[in-house]
Design brief:
By secondary structure, the chain is an alpha+beta fold. The chain is 61% helix and 13% strand. It has three domains: 2-77; 120-185, Signal transduction histidine kinase, dimerisation/phosphotransfer (DHp) domain (Helix Hairpins), CATH 1.10.287.130; 194-341, Histidine kinase-like ATPase, C-terminal domain (Heat Shock Protein 90, 2-Layer Sandwich), CATH 3.30.565.10. It has helices at residues 2-14, 16-32, 37-77, 94-147, 157-185, 198-207, 210-215, 235-251, 282-285, 297-303, 309-319, and strands at residues 194-197, 218-222, 230-233, 256-264, 268-275, 325-329, 333-341. It has a five-stranded mixed β-sheet. A two-stranded antiparallel ribbon has the order 1-3. It starts with a helix and ends with a strand.
């Protein structure tokens, strides 16, 4: 009630000059001079004229206020976000003023976000084109060489076919990752949550990498934790997370070991994938989850990969209401960790 009264009085104060003039010139005479029957018509006409005059000035004041609002909205409609000045109306219109300023701020933020997304989209399309072009041109080159006579040369024909097949496999991985990231970011990824034994899950994944780690003189160790521990999540999607993290650890490690550790907490389990490889420079840590971002572009080409693995990891972990954390030091190694509900 007090708030409503304050708004009414503030609105009156907006036209205080006009109201004061109206009272002095058109209302006060009614009380200062006795109204005789002969003067009644005069005072009615006098008050009516006064009302019309005051209405003119009130309307002009309102027109000025709404002109300010109109200019602000026009600037917004023409995507003019360069004007950072907030809208300043009379205190009688404080709610309108606040609402319009909030709308202008939101609009400015939305425009900035749209421009950023457009830039990311352009970069993404450029990266996709580049990543697709490389294996396609390479495969095309090998096939043309074979068709131009190398197919009849037993010293090179099998070698060229094997290289073409390898690039075809890389292309297949890239397309699969593009489909995954597209489904995730469009909200079409469907998760099937259930409880499963974490130790059995990790052992199954590690076994798949036995031949690869032996070749690179590496070893994957699973730390000690509760063998009966069960966590809640989508088993297939989480396997994708571990596959990407372990593959990265293998790629950027030349020897030593990779550790999978689990720290049991009250209502969750903290899972850590740790390597002792080349590490990540501090300036790059915040960007490694961006699509196609590569810390060392030259070395990344040598060791392969689509550049989408960590972006997929981030999205899947966040879909499990968790967040992936990174600790890394150049020459020492990297540690990726996230929590799962138990």
């Amino acid at each position: 009630m007090l708030r409503n009264l304050s708004h009414r009085f503030s609105f009156i104060l907006l036209f205080k000059i006009e109201i004061l003039i109206f009272i002095i010139l058109f209302i006060a005479p009614v009380f200062l001079f006795p109204i005789s029957p002969d003067r009644k018509i005069f005072f009615v006409i006098w008050a009516s004229v006064g009302f019309l005059i005051i209405s003119f000035f009130v309307r002009r004041r309102l027109k000025e206020i709404f002109s300010v609002i109109e200019k602000k909205i026009k600037r917004m409609s023409h995507d003019d976000c360069s004007d950072d000045r907030t809208l300043q109306l009379s205190y009688a219109f404080n709610e309108i003023e606040t609402a319009l300023n909030q709308m202008a701020e939101k609009y400015k933020n939305d425009i900035a976000k749209m421009k950023r997304l457009e830039r990311i989209r352009t970069e993404f399309l450029g990266n996709v084109s580049h990543e697709l072009r490389t294996p396609i041109f390479t495969i095309q080159g090998f096939l043309e060489t074979l068709l131009n006579g190398a197919l009849e040369d037993p010293n090179v024909n099998r070698k060229f076919l094997e290289k073409a097949a390898a690039h075809t496999e890389n292309l297949n991985h890239l397309l699969n990752d593009l489909i995954d990231i597209s489904m995730i970011e469009s909200g079409e990824m469907r998760l099937s949550f259930r409880y499963f034994n974490l130790l059995d899950f990790l052992i199954e994944i590690v076994k798949e990498y036995d031949p690869i780690v032996l070749e690179k003189n590496l070893k994957i160790e699973i730390g000690q934790f509760n063998k009966k521990l069960e966590v809640f999540g989508d088993k297939n999607k989480l396997k994708q997370v571990f596959v990407n993290l372990i593959q990265n650890a293998i790629k950027y490690s030349n020897s030593g070991k990779i550790e999978l550790m689990v720290e049991e907490e009250k209502s969750s389990a903290l899972i850590i994938v740790k390597d002792f490889g080349v590490g990540i420079p501090e300036k790059d840590i915040e960007r490694i989850f961006e699509r196609f971002y590569r810390v060392d572009k030259t070395r990344s080409k040598e060791i392969g990969g689509t550049g989408l693995g960590l972006a997929i990891v981030k999205h899947i972990v966040e879909a499990h209401n968790s967040k992936i954390e990174v600790k890394s030091k150049v020459g020492v190694g990297s540690e990726f960790s996230f929590s799962l509900k138990k």
